[in-house]
């Protein structure tokens, strides 16, 4: 427990670390993705996705609250045994590794298309990995502080999305439920992927200073993410026609593209530059989860070997450059994997822990009787 006290994070850092992990993945693509399935009713799908993410987040908090001083690995081995518990952590580590791979490849693709088309991807990754190493090397406390900094540093981005709304048409949102509930419910699977990041409550909870406020923290984090997604999605829905929005890969960037000032053109470049910070708050926690879990599994504190993963990403980008079709396929795989890992597992494990605890208590009572 004492080793965790030295790395405690505040409630605000806890909230913004989870929120930052969520918004870094879908703010550029979500409006078009939900519009393809649910049309301009996609904003309702986002609300439903937020509710599902919040429910699972509360399940995670409830699980961790049973043993506040335990890490996720210690919790798994406590209830599943050493062998199965460690195997489960390996699965989660691979899930996080795949998540960071998808996020990294998509982000580098966006940077090259919009800002640095003539720069090699491995050079961009090298710069990102240097900063990433400096942050994850200092642990959860610095990750929380960094998430706090990025949140306030990028608060001006939503204002940019308001400027084009002078040419908006709110009638595009009408009628509500134009195709019924089935398209809306079908689009929920897209929004659940957009809210991924909440599962890292497993990582941040043991370091939270005021653990009694953890449930409130995950609710606020998911609510913040919901507000961001609703703001972006509704802005795109009222600016682009219902048919037009489905034609864009990154409608958020297309929305800010017409903005010009006498001293500045191509505002979308500025937006992408700030987006790099948002991307980092999404990728760094996943990467830290991988390195920290690997160190725990090998029972070696402050082990430098897991950080070899960072230069390995540079090597991968040097030899491999997937097409956008491949990236879309990876994102789809990530979504399917997350349904079982991030959404189903915490709920099932919570029921298992409840049943196991009840069985053990009953066994003790029988012996006492």
TrEMBL record:
**In what way does this protein cross or attach to the membrane?**
Multi-pass membrane protein
Question: In terms of one coarse class, where is the protein primarily found?
Answer: membrane
Localization per Swiss-Prot or TrEMBL: Membrane
In the UniProt record, does the keyword tRNA-binding occur?
Answer: no
Alphabetical UniProt keywords: Germination, Membrane, Transmembrane, Transmembrane helix, Transport
InterPro entries on file: Spore_GerAB (IPR004761)
Superkingdom of the source? Bacteria
Q: Which residues cross the membrane?
A: 12-30, 42-66, 87-114, 120-136, 143-164, 184-205, 217-240, 269-291, 303-321, 333-353
Q: Which PANTHER family match?
A: SPORE GERMINATION PROTEIN A2
UniProt family annotation: Belongs to the amino acid-polyamine-organocation (APC) superfamily. Spore germination protein (SGP) (TC 2.A.3.9) family.
Q: What is the protein name given in its UniProt record?
A: Endospore germination permease
């Amino acid at each position: 427990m004492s080793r965790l006290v030295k790395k405690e994070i505040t409630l605000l850092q806890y909230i913004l670390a989870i929120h930052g992990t969520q918004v870094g993945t879908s703010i550029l693509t979500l409006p078009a993705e939900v519009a393809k399935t649910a049309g301009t009713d996609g904003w309702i799908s986002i609300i439903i996705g937020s509710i599902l993410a919040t429910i699972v987040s509360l399940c995670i908090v409830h699980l961790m609250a049973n043993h506040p001083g335990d890490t996720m690995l210690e919790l798994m081995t406590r209830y599943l045994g050493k062998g199965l518990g460690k195997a489960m952590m390996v699965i989660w580590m691979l899930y996080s590794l795949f998540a960071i791979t998808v996020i990294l490849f998509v982000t580098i693709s966006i940077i090259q298309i919009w800002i640095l088309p003539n720069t090699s991807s491995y050079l961009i990754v090298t710069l990102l990995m240097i900063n990433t190493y400096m942050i994850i090397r200092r642990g959860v406390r610095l990750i929380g502080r960094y998430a706090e900094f990025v949140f306030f540093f990028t608060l001006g981005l939503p204002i940019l999305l308001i400027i084009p709304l002078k040419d908006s048409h709110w009638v595009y949102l009408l009628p509500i439920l134009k195709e019924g509930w089935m398209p809306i419910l079908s689009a929920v699977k897209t929004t659940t992927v957009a809210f991924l990041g909440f599962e890292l409550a497993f990582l941040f909870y043991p370091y939270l200073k005021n653990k009694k406020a953890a449930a409130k923290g995950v609710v606020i984090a998911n609510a913040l993410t919901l507000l961001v997604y609703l703001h972006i999605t509704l802005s795109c829905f009222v600016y682009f026609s219902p048919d037009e929005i489905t034609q864009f890969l990154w409608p958020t960037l297309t929305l800010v593209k017409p903005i010009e000032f006498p001293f500045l053109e191509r505002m979308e470049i500025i937006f992408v530059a700030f987006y790099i910070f948002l991307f980092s708050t999404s990728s760094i926690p996943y990467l830290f989860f991988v390195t920290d879990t690997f160190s725990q599994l090998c029972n070696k504190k402050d082990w430098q070997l897991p950080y070899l993963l960072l230069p390995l990403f540079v090597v991968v980008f040097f030899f491999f450059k997937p097409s956008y079709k491949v990236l879309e396929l990876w994102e789809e795989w990530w979504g399917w994997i997350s349904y079982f890992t991030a959404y189903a597992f915490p709920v099932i494990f919570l029921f298992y822990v409840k049943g196991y605890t009840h069985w053990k208590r009953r066994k003790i009572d029988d012996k006492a009787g």
